[in-house]
Amino acid sequence: MAISRPMLLVFLLLILIMTSQFEWRHQIVDFDMTPSVTPKQQQISRREEAVKEKNIQRLQELVRSLQQQILED
């Protein structure tokens, strides 16, 4: 049984999203455990989180788009 190319792309994107979120959450936990964090580091961390959230949203939109294309075929 062969997997179609769009289905494979959706599967790979889902894996990418799940593993990326796990890694980011793990880094956040490590970051929260650091005793002294400067305000500048906190600001950078917040900006990085915002960028990551945007990337996650873009990936989710891409997955939805691919799923819709699969359903239309």
TrEMBL record:
Signal peptide start and end residues: 1-22
Superkingdom, taxonomy of origin: Eukaryota
Keywords: Signal
Protein name, entry field: Uncharacterized protein
Organism: Gossypium raimondii
Upper classification of the organism: Eukaryota, Viridiplantae, Streptophyta, Embryophyta, Tracheophyta
